[in-house]
Amino acid sequence: MEKKNIDWANLGFGYIKTDYRYVSNFKEGAWDAGVITEDDKVVLSECAGVLQYAQTCFEGLKAYTTEDGKIVCFRPDLNADRMVDSAKRLEMPVFPKERFIDAVVQVVKANAAFVPPYGSGATLYIRPYMFGSNPVIGVKPADEYQFRILTTPVGPYFKGGAKPITIKVSDFDRAAPHGTGHIKAGLNYAMSLHAIVTAHEEGFAENMYLDAATRTKVEETGGANFIFVTKDNKVVTPKSDSILPSITRRSLIYVAKEYLGLEVEEREVFFDEVKDFAECGLCGTAAVVSPVGKIVDHGKEICFPAGMEKMGPTTQKLYDTLTGIQMGRIEAPEGWIKVIE
Ligand code: PLP
Ligand code: COI
Asked: Which of 4, 89, 122, 198 sits most deeply, having the most CB atoms within 10 A of its CB?
């Protein structure tokens, strides 16, 4: 199959329209059979639930070309499970797990010409999403929904790829205790836009959000979880009910323990301890493992020893092992890799 003529090595994290997308509609209590379509337009009532009350959730995963030329994706079952949790919390119908995985396979196969070649540094980002589609004016859940999956080839999430970034401690909160921080609701991202625009204007790549209740504990950024490495080489990652349970973070914990023999602590992380860590990184599907070189807290700087040119050594090992598994260079734990073709 001939690949599209795209400058894979210079892609950023943006939207490029691909040829096909998957669509299924929920009406009268049931999902229809679903189709692959070329139609990228969504036509909705002016009063659709998603437009009035933001009833929408989404997922994000990637398809990779492996060293031996297969197209695979990484742990789509966990994205399906998380979308079930998001749908339930937002009073939306569940899109069945097996159908979610099948739809991912169909849409990636249909867009195989857009899956970046092995070694190009790019991947095909897969974005499943669901929204309330019928008119809703009193505050209540919609009765009709659309589930879609779009795909787009992407490069690194942060400009500069694997170069360490500088982030700031945000004055805004991302998620409340008992709120929606643990699900992938569009509303979590809408309310982070002012914070990220502010951070960018001030020259920062991202925000570090603290817990809303006490503002003493590290939560996550707008689009990734944190991992830290202690001076004695333990991996530490924040535990909180109001952060998104990152599939990348859960995979890195396994990789750290089982592949690298490292000790891992998943626990509350106080902001006061951050200055004592040796390394800091962000992890997520889009972010992969992105090193943080500096954190600025209202003018006070925390600079990590690896500096602003390269990743710290343990972050690098985590990155190499995870991406090695995703690209088929390192044997994966059972069930992590879904071969598409
Ligand atoms: N945290 C937030 C707020 C996110 O949007 C994402 C991206 O999905 C992550 C963390 C990372 O999660 P995952 O590794 O499952 O992509
Ligand atoms: C992802 O990593 O898939 C996300 O959804 C994060 C978003 C900031 C792009």
From this structure: 122
Q: What is the SS3 assignment for 244?
A: coil
Q: How far is the CA of 185 from the centre of ligand 1 (A)?
A: 11
- Residue 157, SS3? coil
Give pLDDT tens digits for 153-198: 999 999 877 899 999 999 999 999 999 999 999 999 999 999 999 9
Q: Which of 182, 246, 289, 322 to mutate to test the pocket of ligand 1 (most atoms within 8 A of CB)?
A: 246
Q: Which two tokens stand for residue 88?
A: 């339930």
Mutate to test the pocket of ligand 1, among 75, 285, 319 (most ligand atoms within 8 A of CB): 285
Tokens of 30: 């049931």
Q: Which amino acid is it at 199?
A: A
* The CATH number of domain 8-154 is 3.30.530.20: no
* Topology agreement, domain 8-154 and domain 165-326: no
Tokens of 127: 């974005």
Name which of 58-72, 148-162, 211-225, 253-267 the model is least confident about.
148-162
Does the predicted model carry a pTM greater than 0.85? yes
How far apart are alpha carbons 73 and 27 in whole angstroms? 30
Quote the pLDDT of residue 162.
84
For residue 237 and ligand 2, the question of a CB distance below 6 A is answered with no
Q: How does pLDDT run across 256-302, given as a tens digit for each residue?
A: 999 999 999 999 999 999 999 999 999 999 999 999 999 999 999 99
Delimit the domains of the chain by residue range.
Answer: 8-154, 165-326
Does the Cβ of 181 fall within 6 Å of ligand 2? no
Closest ligand to residue 152's CA: 2
Q: What is the DSSP letter of 116?
A: P
What's the first-to-final CA gap in the chain, in angstroms? 11
Domain 165-326 superfamily per CATH: D-amino Acid Aminotransferase, subunit A, domain 2 (3.20.10.10)
